[in-house]
Write a structure and sequence with these properties.
The complex is a heterodimer of chains A (about 475) and B (about 450). Chain A has about 475 residues and is α/β, with parallel strands linked by helices. Chain A has 14 helices and 14 strands. In chain B, about 35% of the residues lie in helices and about 15% in strands. The chains are: A alpha/beta (about 475), B alpha/beta (about 450).
Chain lengths: ~475, ~450
């Protein structure tokens, strides 16, 4: 692979900055049909022509690496190809309507939401789905609110004050639990990288509201004792939450609902190939078992006599987004699921698992835990995983997630997904294997072939400059 | 047939049968199923009952389904606004290097998106007059909720009350209550008078337990709030923060939030960049520099690379959930970065002069339309004796529900906000239909 990022040298000191440098001299005085005291005095923003802007943003795009640029095996993020036609259907006339339109005038939108609720329920083995949460972490938070409402309805609201999360959990799990007002109990992993059943038995009790679990977990390992885990949590009166970040590994082979999970979220931008957009938007619908459906956020969509209607679940928690979350992302999700169907979804999962296992078999870094599914965590050993990542950039590939989970020292968390062919996986393995043979000096000097050389992130935090107003010095 | 075009399996998994066999051989198993470590009792048979469609059939299905939506000319607002989005925004934001990238964890290969987000932050700093803006939240409601949490953190010594106007949209209040319930905050209301804040009511309601006072400009009824400085003073006299809800078009013209004492500005920045999109948004969040370590969400900062060149990077990540876990400033991870990119392109396209011009139109078009409706027998507009931005409420002598229904029958959508009140929003996207709208309104209002 010889992918090298584009780079423009605007002047000696800076890589590229027309919009920044041309901000001067564009101050506009405000005169309006309003009393002066209700208006501001002036506004200072760049004034550029459309052709100048077209070049500005085109150049910026060329200084950016996406999944269409090359392999992006970022563990836990599930960076897979985004079909182009889904962008087109999200831009269809009729896709963008105002949220306050009457039900009768937006039957198409409601039909699609209803259809997606149904698809996601089937895929997760859940009884009811809400599409409202606008991201995975928002889905977690929503699930926590639903669990809280459930316990309160049972008269156990004051008693159940704890949420248990494994030490390998995504950081959003404890952050969402804390946001919900819960005490976080961290559960250490067993030596095999899975939930320590004895530790779980010791941790659960009358104060347990929820146990949040990713399966396969962040090491890519399936929690084989999941039935026992569900039993332990349920016997203690708690609920079991499924973090959907790794659902791509299980499509068509296991369903959270069948495993005993009560609540789950779907990261549709991971599992169903909706573009991550440089960090968002995603969407984080949640699915629940029947006993929790009455607490879901409002509105949901139902079908009555051939007509689609919005409705508020009987004991709804209310809202977690101003309206129905990230609707344009939900259209793409629907289109992707329809395109793949049973057969495609199941195949995507198979190939994702095959690719992870094949890539792991071809690299010389140690992979301490197995058998893994769609992702594996290698150890950089004596090398610094962050340096390894920077050096991989020089080989034209995006590196894995580094230094997490902390269970593996100098972790390289790798997830190739189903979209890479064998040749690309071999090239990725070549990059890993070239770097493992290199000395610290080479690694520390990397990257050399990228738009910018190694960036000093610490100094950005020491000397905070967060807008162009701070660049004048 | 090559893998990519195979009619079986995932159309986006490229493996040929030969390739699959060779890879299984390399791994040392006979079939892919041998790689799944799932106990028999929880195995699933793979049948969801979801039929696989071709790309063409899927497109056709979506086209048909969305075609069920009636084509209406919307005079709708109340928090979700539509301005014309130039084609340039779609074409540039849809470039796949932007669209298919992820969070900028490797800044050396994501300088493009980082610079775009830095520019977005900078535009909001200019518009709000505050020192910092983050790289996006989900929407107005969630940004408001995060502002209350920030206020509670910086006021750790005492207090748990958040004050909002009684005119706040119910869905916005519901989100706020859900986010503030866990940390033990209580949401209370102060009264409004003729759609603007009732300062006497606020003065009576506020106390030393108050951590945040929230106001909106423009308000839910489209009025321009005239009491911002007084609200800010009352908040600060009681050691509370002052949060203002607004949007980037309004900010181009109306009082600079920092100048009237705002400590935090929230709102929906997707008023530029996205159409109404069934309520999908872009949470705007700006605040004062002293709170930077308490800010939720991502921040892009400036640094240098190994050659000493200016370079961009995510910064202060130690506040975030992936580092600080349950002690993070917020649980937000995936945000609305791509929408922020769209908004930045749209603002850059308009420039200062274009943005101010658009904002001025939001005042004059609302004034003009209100006058024209007021001329109709049986209609009084605007109900509120205030200056307006984009939208206003009209009183109808006839009951509002049939008027709204009759207008919809004739192809126009407006809000019903009371038994005899409708709310009307006019921007550059429905301006062309104003004459027809006024004519029809006169017919149905009799």
């Amino acid at each position: 692979m010889n992918y090298t990022q584009a780079k423009w040298e605007h002047d000696e000191d800076d890589l590229y900055e027309p919009l920044l440098s041309e901000k001067d001299g564009a101050e506009v005085e405000i005169e309006a049909a309003l009393p002066d005291e209700l208006t501001r005095d002036s506004l200072d923003l760049p004034e550029l022509s459309e052709p100048e802007l077209a070049r500005h943003y085109t150049r910026l795009s060329q200084m950016n690496y996406g999944i269409d640029s090359g392999p992006y095996p970022l563990g836990s993020c599930t960076m897979k190809y985004n079909p182009k036609f889904t962008e087109d259907v999200a831009a269809l006339p009729g896709a963008s309507v105002h949220p306050d339109r009457s039900e009768g005038s937006v039957q198409g939108t409601l039909e699609l939401l209803y259809g997606l609720q149904d698809y996601l329920a089937r895929i997760g083995g859940m009884d009811a789905v809400s599409l409202q949460p606008p991201a995975g972490a928002a889905g977690e938070f929503t699930g926590i609110l639903v669990a809280k409402a459930f316990h309160e309805a049972n008269g156990e609201g004051d008693q159940r004050t704890e949420i248990i999360v494994p030490d390998s959990a995504h950081g959003t799990n404890p952050a969402s639990a804390a946001l919900g007002g819960y005490d976080v109990v961290e559960l250490p992993s067993a030596d095999d990288g899975r939930v320590d059943i004895e530790a779980l038995e010791a941790a659960v009790g009358d104060s347990t509201a929820l146990f949040m679990l990713t399966n396969p977990n962040t090491l890519g390992l399936f929690e084989r004792d999941i039935e026992r885990i569900a039993e332990i949590v349920h016997e203690a009166g708690g609920l079991l939450y499924y973090d959907g970040a790794n659902l791509n590994a299980l499509l068509g082979r296991a369903r959270p609902g069948d495993m005993g999970f009560d609540i789950m979220h779907y990261n549709v931008h991971k599992t169903f190939a909706t573009p991550h957009g440089g960090g968002g938007p995603g969407a984080g619908p949640i699915g629940v078992r029947e006993k929790l459906a009455e607490f879901l956020p409002a509105p949901r969509v139902k079908k009555m006599n051939g007509t689609y209607e919005r409705f508020d679940p009987e004991r709804t928690i209310g809202k977690v987004h101003g309206f129905t979350g990230n609707w344009l992302v939900l259209i793409k999700t629907y289109a992707y699921i329809a395109r793949l169907g049973d057969e495609g979804l199941s195949d995507a999962s198979a190939k994702a698992v095959l690719n992870a296992n094949y890539l792991a078999s071809q690299i010389e870094y140690d992979v301490p835990f197995s058998p893994f599914h769609h992702e594996f965590v290698a150890s950089a050993g004596d090398q610094d995983a962050a340096d390894v990542a920077k050096r991989m950039l020089d080989y034209g590939v995006h590196p894995p997630t580094t230094k997490w989970p902390e269970i593996v020292s100098e972790a390289l968390m790798t997830e190739p997904t189903e979209i890479e062919n064998r040749e690309t996986l071999d090239e990725l393995a070549d990059a890993f294997n070239a770097v493992i043979a290199e000395d610290d000096e080479t690694l520390e000097a990397a990257p050399q072939k990228t738009t910018a050389k190694r960036i000093d992130q610490a100094s950005a935090a020491r000397n905070l400059r967060l807008s162009w107003h701070s660049l004048d010095d | 047939m090559t893998g990519g075009k195979a009619s079986t399996g995932s159309p986006y998994a490229p493996h040929t049968a030969e390739e699959t066999a060779a890879m299984l051989d390399a791994v040392g198993v006979e079939s892919v199923e041998d790689l799944f470590d799932i106990p028999e009792p929880v195995r699933f048979d793979g049948e969801f009952g979801i039929e696989k469609r071709t790309e063409q059939a899927t497109r056709r299905e979506l086209q048909r389904t969305l075609g069920e939506n009636r084509t209406l000319t919307e005079f709708l607002g109340r928090g979700h606004y539509s301005h014309y989005v130039p084609s340039l925004v779609d074409h540039l934001a849809d470039r796949s290097e932007f669209l298919t990238s992820y969070t900028q964890y490797q800044p050396e290969v994501t300088q493009g998106f980082l610079q775009a987000l830095f520019e977005y932050q900078s535009m909001l700093v200019e518009l709000t007059g505050l020192e910092i803006a983050n790289a996006s939240m989900y929407d107005h409601a969630t940004a408001l909720a995060e502002s209350a949490l920030l206020a509670a953190r910086v006021r750790q010594t005492s207090g748990n009350r958040v004050l909002v106007p009684d005119s706040i949209l119910p869905e916005r209040r519901s989100v706020l209550e859900n986010y503030t319930d866990g940390p033990g905050l209580v949401v209370d209301e102060y009264a409004t008078d003729d759609a603007n804040a009732d300062i006497d009511s606020l003065a009576e309601t506020i106390d030393e337990e108050t951590v945040l006072v929230y106001a909106e400009n423009p308000t839910t009824r489209g009025t321009i709030e005239e009491n911002l400085a007084e609200i800010g003073d009352l908040a600060h006299d009681n050691d509370a923060l002052f949060c203002l809800g607004t949007d980037p078009v309004a900010l181009a013209l109306l009082q600079e939030p920092a100048a009237v004492g705002a400590d935090i500005v929230v709102g929906d920045a997707a008023a530029l960049g996205l159409p109404t999109s069934y309520g999908m948004g872009l949470g705007l969040f700006a605040t004062r520099e002293e709170f930077v370590r308490q800010v939720p969400g991502r921040l892009v900062g400036v640094s240098e690379d190994g050659d000493g060149n200016r370079a961009f990077t995510l910064t202060l990540q130690t506040r975030e959930q992936h580092i600080r876990r349950e002690r993070a400033t917020s649980n937000i991870c995936t945000n609305q970065a791509w929408v922020a990119l769209r908004t930045a392109i749209h603002i850059a396209y308009l420039g200062a002069s274009g943005l101010v011009e658009l904002a001025e139109k939001c005042v004059t078009m609302a004034d003009d339309l209100a006058q024209r409706l007021d001329d109709i027998s049986g209609v009084q507009a605007p109900v509120n004796d205030r200056h307006h931005f984009r939208e206003f409420v009209a009183h109808t002598d006839q009951p509002a529900p049939p008027i709204v229904a009759d207008l919809e029958e004739r192809g126009f959508a407006v809000h019903e906000v009371g038994e005899h009140e409708v709310q009307v929003c006019v921007t550059d996207v429905n301006e062309h239909a104003v004459d027809e709208f006024v004519t029809l309104f006169a017919e149905v209002a009799i």
